[in-house]
Description:
Pfam families: HATPase_c, HisKA, PAS_9. GO terms for molecular function: transferase activity. Residues 598-632 form a coiled coil. It catalyses: ATP + protein L-histidine = ADP + protein N-phospho-L-histidine. By secondary structure, the chain is α+β, with helices and mostly antiparallel strands. A hairpin with a 5-residue loop joins strand 25 and strand 26. It is extended, with a radius of gyration of 50 Å. Helix 23 (668-699) runs parallel beside helix 26, helix 24 packs across helix 25 and helix 25 packs antiparallel against helix 26 (818-828). It has 7 domains: 1-26; 32-133, Beta-Lactamase, CATH 3.30.450; 160-267, PAS domain (Beta-Lactamase, 2-Layer Sandwich); 272-378, Beta-Lactamase, CATH 3.30.450.20; 493-597, Beta-Lactamase, CATH 3.30.450; 605-684; 701-847, Heat Shock Protein 90 (2-Layer Sandwich). The model is unreliable at 374-381 (pLDDT under 50).
Amino acid sequence: MTDPSPEATQITNLQQELALYKSKYYTLLNNVRESVAIYKPIKDGSDFQIINLNPSACQTEHVSFEDVKGGSLIETFPGVEQFGLLEILKNVWKSGNAQKFPLRMYQDERIQGWRDNFIFKMPGNEIVAVYEDKTAEKQLIQDLEITKALLNQTLQQSPDGLIIADANSKKILFINQIAVSLLGIESKSVVNLNQIDGFWDIFDKNRNPVAVNEYPLIKAINGQFTKPETLLIKRSSDSKEFWCEAKGYPIFNEKGKIFAGCFLFSDITEKINFRQKVKMLAKFPEENPFPVMRISMDGKVLFHNKASSPLLKKWNFDGEFLNSEEVINPLDAMKMESKIVQLNVDVKALTFFVIFIPIPDSNMINIYAYDISEIKMLSKFPEQNPNPVIRLDRNGFVKYHNKASLPLLQFWGFRNHNIYAAEILQELTKVHNTSKIGKVETQIGEKFYSIFLKSIENTDLINLYALDITEKVKTTQNFIKSQERYYNLFYNMLDGYAYHAIILNEHGSPIDYEFIDINPAFTEMTGITREMAIGKKVTQIVPNIKDDTVDWIGTYGKVALSGKSITFENFSQGLNKHFAVSSYCPERGYFVTVFRDITEQKRLSKEIEDLNQDLEVRIQQRTLKLEAVNRELETFSYSVSHDLRAPLRGIDGFSQAILEDYNNVLDETGQDYLRRIRSGVQRMGDLINDMLQLSRLTRMELHKASVNLSSIAQDIIDDLFTADPERQIKIKIQKDLIHFCDYQLIRSVLQNLLENAWKFTQNTLNPQIEFGKMLLDEQITFFVRDNGAGFDMNYYNKLFGTFQRLHSVNEFEGTGIGLATVQRIIHKHGGSIRAEGKVNEGATFYFTLN
């Protein structure tokens, strides 16, 4: 017999390996707790053929795999289209992207239950649905919600205010609507007992303050039962007061340990006020708007006022005696024991609160009555309930509804006393004459409601209660959005992020920490992947971490246990990178580290440092050169001043001598030429002076101080008036314009600008000059404004040029260097200057100072 060929051996091995993998696959498929269904698209993806159902899926769907194998999904599971799963299968088959199909209820004629699905596509084009039957869990949650709702409704229907607080945490667990209304607070305003003295104050029946530790609720959580007592509660929100009968008692668990305290109180303000009114009004019985009577013990009427007529008629008054058991019974009780008797008496549409008060040492009784019809009407719970309450029959015919239910009724198409909403009618049929409690959740506009339906025993009626769960739904939605935003940030942030749990020894000292989660940026920075890190200890990932010069476990342990954040920089030798690290504690025992790669930043910082050092050397070198140039310029300026002035003085002097010595020889034309020569020489002297001043300004150092610009401007204007006292001109200078600047230089600026304004308004009727301050583009701006000659804005570019003039010398004198000087001074202060003007309408110069 020949040995098998290598190819045959390889095929045999592959077959064995394939058989092993198939065995593992089916073992896993048949033993997982989750339900698994495998489908193949048919009819171009409009339906799916059942390829496999694991035992868990068969049990969930109440089918046998042999019965459904190869069948159509739509035919096998009627209602799957309405369930929405078919559309999800199509999307996954077409896109190849896995999808989660959130918790939904599926039902057909066989089954009804909640499913939570995850659908993905296999390489072989099969579609796999992995899902869990959440029916029992959902039913438990529904039962819990119903129980909570019924308990809440029961507590809410209590005619007394009720507050329950946790004995350990001191947190308020429950406040019913009556308590909220009486105390004038929102149910979520008070969350802890240490806040209650900020919301209301309590006084005893003599109006003496009650200490907080003597409050019935505080005593109750400390295990004390308090007897009913009359207390006055004053609300902090609006200072309103009400009297109440209150008591406190502890609530024990099955082991006899206190776990909560209860404060129960009822509003007796009306009764107390009534008693006070009775005392006051009884002095004026005829004027009293309420019934007042005096009778004897045998029911004989000794006195009654006009307001007593309805009660007299109700009690069959025969002109002498009252003949009604409503009176006889209280009288019999009072004969046996002298005490006050109180009762409510209905007279047609009215209800009176009646009080019988025996007169001491006599056989007479005073009767006082107070109309409480309005109070009685308001005390009907459904009308007062802020939540919808409806009573209806199984066909949707509404027998009763309160005001709060109107939005629901309108939404359900309420007309002719009937509602026509299919979802409600369906639930009515389900719960009718059963002990079941139906539940429906619906949305109306921006509000969400949870609706409970309960059949009234031995009747054809059903009570419907609705709870506004808008806040709960929106909180859940916001939480989901917040989670989405968090994970979007978490997975896309550029900084490395790692979440850890600290590990302690038996003494409570940190000995290690575990990786709970890391983001992709952390992996990119460190090379540590999620597979390497999640669930692992740092000593497993970095075995030599304890040999590092820094005690990382101890450092992060302090953060996790103390809650104090830290920030530092670290250089990793292994990664050859610099990191900026911050660590904080999200909750005790955990810490987060956020890493930022600052290697490039460090490199650039070093380059900048080197450049700054090089720049400093260059600045020193240029400063020396600049000082040398300035010295040369000073020498040159001196030479210009000395060398140019000497010949100018000569020209001016000889011209003057000729005019004086040869006056008779020269004709008028010759004399005019000499006068023009002298004028040109003097103008040349002025130009040399202005040039030297401009040169000095360029080299001057600033000596800044707090300067009053208003005072300088006033001095300059005073000098101008001294030189030209006949001038009629209106001056306006804003007071106390203070700025930090160089006094001498700013004086030069204001002198140039104000002298220009003085000069250019000399031919103007009603001339005006103004100096002030305003805010332009959020920056303090000074201005000098006049209504003089102005200038053409087309030549604005020449305005601040050296020796540039926009008016002839014949019109206005000057060298054309003043505004160039002003501009250099302003720039030297780090500011800016600009001007606006119009011919014959004036000009305004705006300047800022850094």
